[in-house]
Amino acid sequence: MKEPVKINKDLIKAHGLTEEEYKRIKKILGREPNFTELGIFSVMWSEHCSYQSSKS
Q1: Which of 8, 10, 50, 56 has its CA 20 to 30 A from that of 39?
Q2: Where would I find the Phosphoribosylformylglycinamidine synthase linker domain in this sequence (predicted)?
Q3: pTM across the whole model
């Protein structure tokens, strides 16, 4: 079994997220996100999808 991917500043940046967005993700989840969750938020909040800016 593989070791879980450690979330660090480089990985957060590679997903196109800011540190503030990462803090918001942790607040929403109530914990550190795993690699898959980080990817999901990254896609949902990307400029292409515009989910973050279209939320009320």
Answers
A1: 56
A2: 14-51
A3: 0.77
